[in-house]
Amino acid sequence: MSIWGKLFSAVKGHVNTAAENIQDSNLMVILEQEIREAKEAIAKAKDERARMTANRVLKERSVAELESEVHRRTDAARTAKSTGDEVLAVEIIESILKLKEKSISEQDLADQYKATEEKMDASIRQSQSRIENLNRKIESAKATEALIHAQKASSTSTVASNGKLASAVDSLDRLEQRQAHQQAMLEAAEQEARVDSGADLEEKIKRLERPGQGDVQKLLEAL
């Protein structure tokens, strides 16, 4: 299978969803390796195209030189004929025919090289476009993968945070209940101590002797 065949077999279905391409942890490695191989193939194709270009230039240069020689010998044949040397004129014309035949052959080769160049240019452009497109898809898949990992991490952190928060709230409720219970026990113990010491009774007697300044009714009755 060609490089492009393997490459696009590997990414079959990629356009449907980027998530499908990141399920296999080895897929990205395979794709990147295929792209490297494709780039190497393109580099070799460019070298071959350069060779075709060089050959075409050489053939076109040969054709130009042959045509120039044809013109020079044609002038020479006219001169030989005008001077009455028809034997020389015929000999020159025969050489001209051979030069033209060679020129046509060289031009045919130049045309073939040019056609090959054009086909290779089109193929290289298409291959480069495919690689660029595939690189965009891979970058998109990588970004999607990173986003999915981030979302998973965020979701896990949120769940863990919520769990810790709920546990902390429960602990705080238990602490408050324990503190309220302890406070009630202290107040009861203090009250019991006051009763045992008589302080509670003495407090009641003092309130009878000196009504509270804020008790307006009692102050009124004391007048």
UniProtKB/TrEMBL annotation:
Highest taxon in the source lineage: Bacteria
Keyword Coiled coil assigned: yes
Family stated for the protein in its record: Belongs to the PspA/Vipp/IM30 family.
UniProt KW Coiled coil keyword: yes
InterPro entries listed in its UniProt record: PspA_VIPP1
Keywords: Coiled coil
Residue ranges the record marks as coiled coil: 28-55, 117-144
Name listed for the protein in its UniProt record: PspA/IM30 family protein
Record organism: Pseudovibrio axinellae
